[in-house]
Specification:
The protein is α+β, with helices and mostly antiparallel strands and 302 residues long. The protein contains 9 helices and 11 strands. The protein has helices at 3-15, 21-28, 32-44, 74-83, 89-103, 123-137, 231-237, 262-268, 280-301, and strands at residues 49-52, 58-61, 139-146, 152-165, 168-175, 180-185, 189-198, 219-226, 243-245, 251-258, 274-278. The strands form 3 sheets. The chain has a 5-stranded antiparallel beta sheet with strand order 6-5-4-3-7, with helices on one face. Strands 9-10-8-11 form a 4-stranded antiparallel beta sheet, with helices on one face. It has a two-stranded antiparallel ribbon with strand order 1-2. A hairpin with a 5-residue loop joins β9 and β10 (251-258). α2 (21-28) crosses α3. The radius of gyration is 31 Å and the shape is elongated.
C-alpha cells in the first residue's frame, strides 16, 4: 500500500465534491477493495472522510474540513509527492501522521491572555513581546527594577524564560554582574529595552523560587476579618483554603505574610473593611500607619 496513493486519493477528494470508490479505483488502477482499505486508513488517522451508499453516494470530505488549497504552491506539492514516493510501511505511517495533523485544526480563541491592567495602555503586553523576542534571539536586556525594599536599580541581564505564578508574570534571567540567576516581576521592570549584546551561555537555570514558602524568621502569621463587601478581593488575593465564611457574611482569613513595612500599607488598601485579629504587633503597625495618614491629612486642612 503506497504512501503516494494516500496523497493521490486525498488530492482527488479535494478536487471533486463527491467521487465513487469505483471511479477512484479506475483512476488509480487498483481494485475497489484497495480503495476502501485506503479510505479506512485515512479515516482512522483522523482525516474526515465520509462514505455514503446508494445512487447518489460516494466518498467525500466533511464540509468545512478541507485544508486551504493554497497551503502549498504547485512546486511544493511536487516536492511533497516526490518525498512521499516510498512504498515502505514506515513511510506510509509517517504519511498518515502528516495527513492527520493537517486536518486537526485547533479551536480558535479558546484562551486569551491580556497583560495590561484595567484602564492602562498596552505597555505590559509590549514588554512581554519584547522579552519573548530577546529570549528567542538570545540578546541581553536592560531595565530599571523597582524592588520590594523601595529601591530602583539598573540591571543588564540575559533572559532565560518567562514564568507565571500566582497573579503575575516573572522573568528568570542570568545576571553576569552578580554571576547568578535572578527572578524579576514583569510589572516592576521599568524602561525595558533589548540590547545589541548577544549571549551564548548554555543556560541551566534552577526552578524559580516562587513556591510561596516564607522562611520562619521572615514571616507573620495573621488572623484577619474582612467585611462582606470585600469578598471579591479576598478570593482574588488569598488561597481559598485560608478563608472561612461567617454566618454574618464576613470572612475570616488565616494566612502568612512576608514581614516588612509594606504589610501595613497593603492592609490599609482594604480601608475600614479589614480588622486585624492577631498578632498584636501587626495591630500596632497598622495603627501607627493609620495615625501617620491622619496626621498628613490633618496638616493639609490647616
Amino acid at each position: 500500500m503506497s504512501a503516494n496513493r494516500l496523497i493521490q486519493i486525498l488530492s482527488l477528494l479535494l478536487e471533486h465534491d463527491r467521487i465513487t470508490a469505483p471511479q477512484l479505483a479506475q483512476m488509480l488502477q487498483v481494485s475497489v477493495s484497495t480503495i476502501y482499505r485506503e479510505i479506512d486508513a485515512l479515516s482512522a488517522a483522523g482525516v474526515p472522510v465520509c462514505t455514503a451508499p446508494g445512487k447518489n453516494g460516494g466518498v467525500t470530505l466533511m464540509a468545512g474540513c478541507a485544508p486551504d488549497p493554497n497551503l502549498f504552491t504547485p512546486g511544493e506539492q511536487q516536492q511533497l509527492l516526490a518525498a512521499l514516493d516510498d512504498d515502505s510501511d514506515a513511510q506510509r505511517e509517517a504519511t498518515l501522521a502528516k495527513l492527520s495533523a493537517l486536518f486537526r485544526r485547533p479551536e480558535e480563541d479558546w484562551l486569551q491572555v491580556y497583560l495590561t491592567h484595567w484602564g492602562s495602555s498596552a505597555g505590559d503586553t509590549e514588554d512581554f513581546k519584547l522579552l519573548r523576542e530577546a529570549i528567542l534571539q538570545r540578546r541581553a536586556v536592560q531595565f530599571t527594577y523597582a524592588s520590594s525594599q523601595g529601591e530602583q536599580m539598573p540591571y543588564l541581564v540575559q533572559p532565560v524564560r518567562l514564568v507565571f505564578q500566582g497573579n503575575g508574570w516573572y522573568l528568570q534571567a542570568y545576571c553576569p554582574f552578580q554571576e547568578c540567576y535572578r527572578t524579576f516581576r514583569l510589572t516592576r521592570m521599568l524602561d525595558l529595552t533589548i540590547t545589541d549584546q548577544p549571549f551564548h551561555r548554555l543556560m541551566n537555570p534552577p526552578d524559580p523560587e516562587l513556591s510561596g514558602e516564607i522562611p520562619p524568621l521572615f514571616r507573620v502569621e495573621a488572623e484577619l476579618r474582612f467585611a462582606p463587601s470585600l469578598a471579591h478581593r479576598v478570593y482574588d488575593e488569598f488561597d481559598r483554603r485560608c478563608v472561612t465564611p461567617q454566618p454574618d457574611g464576613s470572612l475570616l482569613v488565616s494566612t502568612v505574610f512576608p514581614d516588612g513595612g509594606w504589610l501595613a500599607s497593603y492592609l490599609l488598601s482594604f480601608g475600614g473593611g479589614v480588622e486585624v485579629l492577631s498578632p498584636a504587633s501587626l495591630q500596632r503597625q497598622l495603627a501607627q500607619a493609620s495615625e501617620k495618614l491622619r496626621e498628613a491629612y490633618a496638616s493639609n486642612e490647616e
